[in-house]
Amino acid sequence: MKSALITGITGQDGAYLAKLLLDKGYKVYGLIARRATSTTWRLQFLGIENEVELINGDLTDLPSIVRAITKAKPAEVYNLGAQSFVGTSWQQTVTTVQSTGVGVLHVLEAIRLTDLSIRFYQASSSEMFGLIQEPMQSESTPFYPRSPYGVSKLFGHWMTVNYRESFNLFACSGILFNHESPVRGIEFVTRKVTDAVARIKLGKQQELKLGNIDAKRDWGFAGDYVQAMWLMLQQDKADDYVVATGRTTTVRDMCKRAFEYVNLKYEDYVVIDPAFYRPAEVDILLGNPDKAKKVLGWEAKTSLNTLIEMMVEADLTRVKAEI
Ligand code: NDP
Ligand code: GDR
């Protein structure tokens, strides 16, 4: 039985990837950082909490990563753990750099130290493109990150490339554009919107405060995107890939569609609050997924409308279940 270790298994992608790997017959280990309250709700939502083996550890603590790898002896390591919220990366600059940036180096070093034959996936991000240099971003587009998060991801990306070139490590960097799901963290804009739509529809909230709704993002479904991660590690050669839908939409339009799904108008509820503006914004992202399609045979299957419907439905169910 093939085994895999996922850092960030309690996050959105970690949960979907764990489900995918379990369905493929893998033994799945997950690194779990100690928190005061339980963080396994996403694994519960997907019905796999008892199917995965969790190992205590933290990306900022190299010995714990070495111990986790020694215990799991995985054929594949997926490094999805990170402080992943761009907004917070200006509030917690150093911890963001430590987990999102240096954490990648810790995993690479742990693989090097344990000397096992391991294929490595790094969760890189379209935030590395930042201030856009080309209208459609591909693997060859220059980077210009606009947040401490983006800068940290760029460090992790180049470390991954460097370890591949220096030590012949099978290391891939997946440059993923925004992807969402019913288990997306509530602070990210899509889920903030779908949760508010459900609450407003059910009379539990009056308004929705947002920041820059003219920003544009290339949004896909997390369930589709974790397949691309797995495919990258099944190739003969390690490489880097952009994973995106190839379509971009404003936050405003996403909002409009989510409110329309429950027969409401977003203009009646959305209030612009400067508190949600960022010190430096990434105005537009639009990925070119041609290489992923050509080499991996991957393409995004879920439309934005289907994704929004899925998310609003899940939030309506959740809000109705609240006491
Ligand atoms: P989430 O924020 O949902 O999950 C992040 C995970 O990282 C959680 O399991 C969290 O644990 C864990 N984590 C945070 N800090 C540490 C630490 N110091 N040690 C160990 N684990 C830690 O992110 P997503 O699932 O959305 O994203 C997965 C990865 O992909 C991230 O690296 C993200 O930056 C990247 N990415 C995401 C994209 C997206 O659109 N979703 C796009 C491009 C890249 P806990 O539950 O305890 O907080
Ligand atoms: P992003 O996602 O920063 O692209 O990072 P987020 O959903 O937080 O923001 C998307 C865009 O919406 C604008 N926006 C708001 N954002 C939030 N969170 N809250 C608001 O109220 C709001 N109003 C407007 C933002 O300014 C931004 O332009 C996500 C994360 O998952 C990263 O980890 C990942 O690497 C990238 O996607 C690709």
UniProtKB/TrEMBL annotation:
Domain NAD(P)-binding: 5-311
GO MF annotation: an example: NADP+ binding
Family indicated by similarity: Belongs to the NAD(P)-dependent epimerase/dehydratase family. GDP-mannose 4,6-dehydratase subfamily.
Reaction(s) catalysed by this chain's protein: GDP-alpha-D-mannose = GDP-4-dehydro-alpha-D-rhamnose + H2O
Gene3D superfamilies, sorted: NAD(P)-binding Rossmann-like Domain (3.40.50.720), UDP-galactose 4-epimerase, domain 1 (3.90.25.10)
Domain of life: Bacteria
SUPFAM superfamilies, A to Z: NAD(P)-binding Rossmann-fold domains
Entries under InterPro entries matching the protein: GDP_Man_deHydtase, NAD(P)-bd_dom, NAD(P)-bd_dom_sf
UniProt enzyme class: lyase
Gene encoding the protein: gmd_3
EC number: 4.2.1.47
Cofactor(s) of this protein: NADP(+)
Protein name: GDP-mannose 4,6-dehydratase
